[in-house]
Amino acid sequence: MTDSEIKHSGVVLSIDGQTARIKILQTSACAACKAREMCVSSESQEKVIEAMMLEPLQIGEKAEVIVREQLAWRAILLGYILPFIVMVAVIVVLDVCTTLDETISGTIALCSIAVYYLVLRLFRKKIQKHFSFTARKEN
Fold first, then answer.
1. Domain of 58?
2. C-alpha pair distances (Å), 32 with each of 26, 27, 28, 35, 43
3. Cα separation, 100 vs 93, whole angstroms
4. How far apart are CA 91 and CA 83, in angstroms?
């Protein structure tokens, strides 16, 4: 069984050994919509991704950045689902175990998310080892 892949087109900015820095245009789902000019919710932004080259690439060449879909789901878990669980757990614990005002409990819960993201940032090098991008020439 093979993992499905998520692919983005980009341009090679630089090469260092087997690693290429590739600029991609990350777009929201709305960016492909024909009515995006009339809508304020369509957005896109440029990102620079470091990817292991599957084949030799040249600076300025169009390339395809690939990541396994399983890794994308892991990123969603770390970035969105776990912080939500932390926030809800903190609210429940504070509500059950203390007599704090709801606004104070809510503020502490929001601060717990900030602490969660701070810990995530501190361990980013370790986490990055599990997230790998690959690149090849665009077909």
1. 5-137
2. 11, 8, 8, 9, 10
3. 11
4. 12
Q: Which residue has the tokens 């669980």?
A: 85
Each of the 139 residues of the chain gets a pLDDT tens digit; together they read 346 888 888 999 999 988 899 998 776 655 556 555 555 555 667 888 888 898 999 999 999 988 888 888 888 899 999 999 999 999 999 999 998 999 999 999 999 999 999 999 999 888 877 878 889 988 7
Task: Record the tokens describing residue 61, joined without a space.
Answer: 């060449």
Burial status of residue 34 (CB atoms within 10 A of its CB: 0-12, 13-18, 19 or more): exposed
What's the domain count of the chain? 1
DSSP output for 109-124: HHHHHHHHHHHHHHTH
Q: Indicate the pairing of strand 134-137 with strand 5-16.
A: unpaired
CA distances in angstroms from 118 to 24, 113, 124, listed in the order given: 26, 8, 10
Q: Which helix (H) or strand (E) holds 62?
A: strand 62-68
